[in-house]
UniProtKB/TrEMBL annotation:
Sites of N6-(pyridoxal phosphate)lysine modification: K192
Keywords, alphabetical: Pyridoxal phosphate
Superkingdom, natural source: Bacteria
Active site: K192 (proton acceptor)
An annotated GO BP: polysaccharide biosynthetic process
CDD domains hit by this protein: AHBA_syn
Name this polypeptide is given: Cys/Met metabolism pyridoxal-phosphate-dependent enzyme
Family of this protein: Belongs to the DegT/DnrJ/EryC1 family.
Length: 375
């Protein structure tokens, strides 16, 4: 392996992917521009069908973002004031924010040390008479043990809304995430595995009544034009993004596989280094590696990050502070140390450069720099 020192490795690079599909994307975008159908229409409907088929569900409703997908899902289920929703504290703020936005209360359950995902074994103890739903997050592209979670949910009559924002294409025992719970919520933010050239989101379900309600709520709560029956929102995926996503969906499995190859190689060279823990996949889970997140032990994470930076290796910290300890959730009364696994993770995690086009040379630079910095 040749060590290369003279270039910098970005944490992600979405421009490179665009250059690969530039001709196809340009043609599709020009076609939308010439069509005059910028909102709704056959291209959006076509993408919804293709995405539903890809995930393995009967219904897909597109919307403006992953955040809106989660918000609309809660609204469609009439979850609001007086209700509780269980979720993980180790996620992007959007997951909990929407629970608050509909007037319900987020209840945080600690995470599993190995996967960084909600610890399914702790969910039952957090259920009260107010609990209506659970939002598992398939963090970094790694699926939650959905068989175990669905068992808990069934026993307690809870709805499961999967936050699949980082995990498009991942599966649990062959079943794609977003098709296992009652509702799946996806983000097409540019850095996600299936990213648009702007904002976008989708909701998947096998329940036609929920899908109908979602379509109603995302168009201002109008059943018929100008007949308003409920307060809704305006949340649409526009035709240009749908056209781009139709193209990118055809490449998704290929790109996810390239991410997997990067992960395999990182694992091969970084496994069994003292002071460093590499991510592991659970048996049954097939992740899509939105992030490759290691743990740096012994309080060395921040210094390792700056040493890597000096060598041109850009890394990210997802997430530096768990949600239970965010100022905005002070009112929920969580104490320092109450959810210790998430708290410790927030101090140790470091996400290495990860994108499908990451070259072997770049991977080597990351691997050798990290070994160097730890030595
Ligand atoms: C990105 C993300 C979201 C929100 O998606 P947007 O499209 O940015 O609104 C929600 N949950 C998780 C876990 C995410 O990573």
């Amino acid at each position: 392996m040749v060590q290369s020192l003279n270039h910098s490795v970005p944490a992600f690079d979405i421009k490179q992917q665009y250059t690969i599909i530039e001709a196809e994307v340009s043609a599709a975008v020009l076609e939308v521009l010439a069509s005059g159908r910028y909102i709704g229409g056959p291209i959006v409907a076509g993408f919804e069908q293709q995405f539903a088929a890809y995930i393995g569900v009967t219904e897909c409703v597109t919307c403006n973002s992953g955040t809106d997908a989660l918000f609309l899902a809660l609204k469609a289920l009439n979850i609001g004031a007086g209700d509780e929703v269980i979720t993980t504290p180790f996620t992007f703020i959007a997951t909990a924010e929407v629970i608050s936005a509909v007037g319900a209360k987020p209840v945080f359950v600690d995470i599993d040390e190995t996967t960084f995902n909600l610890d399914v074994n702790q969910v039952a103890a957090a259920i009260t008479r107010q609990t209506k739903a659970v939002i598992p997050v398939h963090l970094f592209g790694q699926p939650v043990d959905m068989a175990a979670l669905m068992n808990v949910a069934k026993a307690h009559n809870l709805v499961v809304i999967e936050d699949c924002a980082q995990s498009t294409g991942a599966n649990w025992v062959g079943q794609k995430v977003g098709s296992i719970g009652h509702i799946g919520c996806f983000s097409f933010y540019p850095t996600k595995n299936l990213g648009a050239c702007g904002d976008g989101g989708a909701i998947t379900t096998n329940d036609p009544e929920i899908a109908a309600r979602l379509r109603f709520l995302k168009e201002h709560g109008q059943k018929n034009r100008y007949l308003c029956e409920e307060i809704g929102v305006n949340s649409r995926l526009d035709a240009m993004q749908a056209a781009i996503l139709q193209i990118k969906l055809r490449y998704l499995d290929f790109w996810n596989n390239q991410r997997r190859q990067v992960a395999v190689r990182y694992h091969q060279y970084l496994n069994q280094i003292p002071g460093l823990i590499v991510p592991q996949e659970l048996a049954g889970g097939m992740g899509v590696w939105n992030q490759y997140t290691i743990r740096v032990q012994d309080n060395k994470r921040d210094s390792i990050q700056s040493l890597l930076q000096q060598r041109g290796v850009n890394t990210m910290i997802y997430y530096p502070r768990p949600l239970d300890l965010q100022p905005v959730y002070e009112n929920l009364g969580y104490k320092d140390g109450q959810l210790p696994v998430a708290q410790q993770a927030s101090q140790e995690v470091l996400s290495l450069p990860m994108f499908p086009e990451l070259s072997e040379e770049q991977q080597n630079h990351v691997i050798y720099s990290l070994k160097d910095c730890l030595a």
